[in-house]
Structure prediction request, 254 residues.
Amino acid sequence: MIRFEQVYKRLGSKMVLDGVDYEIKKSEIFIIVGLSGAGKSVSLKHMVRLLTPDSGRVWVGDDCISEATGPDLERIRAQFGYLFQSGALLQWMSAGDNVGLPLREHTRKSDDEIDAIAREKMRLVKLEEAYEKMPADLSGGMRKRVALARAIVRDPEIVLYDEPTSGLDPVTSRTIDKLILDTRNELGVTSIVVTHDLHSALSIGDTIAMLHEGKIVELSPPSQFIRSTNPIVQSFLESQYITTRGAWEKSEAT
Prediction:
């Protein structure tokens, strides 16, 4: 579905992506973890060509998005929904109007059609009652859920999540995790999640990629990731008190 081929990217004097290779399968939940500055968000930006590789290629299906321009680039980008770290809701618009905004900007649907679709997406994130509320009247977790409804309002094939549980308490974070799983299961989307939250990564991920100093140092399913012998991975696990026992091993023997 998405493929990085020997992607290099330097920002200033720092090599942020240093020959990165990986492939994300259709309908997979692919998690990218790593320390701050490891290149996680830079990877997301390459997927929608907000950044272009210095060398190497990024593929979305059969399309090389890193070389696409004009109408082709817009067509490829239309496959994506994007959940920003902050939620990025417009404060002067109601939750429902925020959700419907991409339809108003990119389609010719009537107001009634947009309203019906936006309400359905709000239902999917279990926030029907908040449709008329303003962002300032919502909790942090509710704002993230509204932002997720907006990200999926055009029925994208791929959803990018940039630190979806950042700034949320553990209970709300697990609610967001469940919504990511539900969104994949109900809509069949491919999900790419950038996160520092290893509990989230291990609980919802099909594959976890760890970036360190611009390179992929581990690429494996959760049950193998927690057993990695790589000292960088082990240090990252220990920093969040991760052991080999947890919800991510519900079907595994330790």
Strands lie at 2-11, 14-24, 29-33, 55-60, 63-64, 80-83, 158-162, 190-194, 207-212, 215-220. The two ends are 32 Å apart (CA to CA).
